[in-house]
Design goal:
Elements: E1 4-6, E2 14-27, E3 30-43, E4 47-51, H1 58-65, E5 73-78, E6 81-82, H2 88-98, E7 99-102, H3 114-124, H4 131-140, H5 156-168, E8 174-178, H6 186-203, E9 207-210, H7 214-217, E10 222-227, E11 230-236, E12 247-249
Parallel strand pairs: 4-9, 4-10, 7-8, 8-9
Antiparallel strand pairs: 1-12, 2-3, 2-5, 5-6, 10-11
Pfam families: ABC_tran
InterPro entries: AAA+_ATPase, ABC_transporter-like_ATP-bd, ABC_transporter-like_CS, ABC_transpr_LolD-like, MacB-like_ATP-bd, P-loop_NTPase
GO molecular function: ATP binding
């Protein structure tokens, strides 16, 4: 498998462009605006954290830009495709081919080994896993020696790393992480955040993470703060995770 050097400073384009997003729903007789004219772009090969108090709209924003939920109005372009207005079948294909997901719950199949869990999305799509990519991901994520173990034989942090590898193995345009450390202790959480940071620095991956934890957000290059359905702060930061190294782009980028 050929490896390509990626200079992150030379990839300035947005992989997600959200324009004037509005999301409303009914709560009894009242109409609630979960998103109120939100416009934001997400850069490739960057780690973006979305923070805010409960009810601020941060999870709603992630669900809408990832195609997990519909918007009331506005536009979402994901990796060159306008996803607002797509059918359920079309959205399923976009999510399968261009998006990776990591959640609080690891969602690993207990009867499968770590390796089998990692390659499952690829094999289910009828493709062969790229052995070189799988090996490199597992080395970067620190689980190369745990691949024959089943989830019950792994720590919580190791299980979440397996989930991250599974999300990355299909070369997604964006990896979405929804409170990925929510079920982990502080040490395991820091390990997983370090792995997400490395996927950006070493693999050129784009990561969007929703979190309520300010310490977790410090691993990101950029922090979007939401309140009452609006972006109230947009900060570019110096991440406190591992320092960025020249990125080896084994993930490849869709154009």
């Amino acid at each position: 498998m050929a490896l390509h050097t990626a200079d992150r400073d030379h990839v300035p384009d947005d992989v997600i462009t959200a324009t004037a997003l509005v999301k409303t729903y009914r709560q009894g007789t009242a109409e609630v605006r979960a998103l109120d004219e939100v416009s934001v772009g997400i850069r490739r090969a960057r780690f973006t954290a979305v923070v805010g108090p409960s009810g601020s709209g941060k999870s709603t924003l992630m669900h809408c830009v990832a195609g997990l939920d519909t918007v009331s109005s506005g536009s979402v372009v994901l990796d060159g495709t306008e996803i607002t207005g797509l059918s359920d079948r079309q959205l399923t294909r976009v999510r399968r081919e261009r998006i990776g997901f990591v959640f609080q719950s690891f969602n690993l199949l207990p009867q499968l080994t770590a390796h089998e869990n990692i390659v499952l999305p690829v094999t289910l799509s009828g493709k062969r896993p790229e052995r070189g990519l799988v090996r490199h991901l597992c080395e970067v994520l620190g689980i190369a020696d745990r691949l024959s173990h089943r989830p019950a034989e792994l720590s919580g942090g190791q299980q979440q790393r397996v989930a991250v590898a599974r999300a990355l193995v299909a070369r997604p345009a964006v990896l979405f992480a929804d409170e990925p450390t929510g079920n982990l202790d502080s040490r395991a959480g820091a390990e997983v955040l370090t792995m997400l940071r490395r996927s950006v620095d070493d693999l050129g991956q784009t990561v969007v993470m929703v979190t309520h934890d300010p310490a977790a957000a410090r691993y990101a290059d950029r922090v979007l703060t939401l309140a009452d359905g609006r972006v109230v702060k947009d900060e570019h930061t110096n991440p406190s995770g591992p320092a960025a190294a020249p990125a080896t782009d084994v993930m490849g980028r869709r154009r």
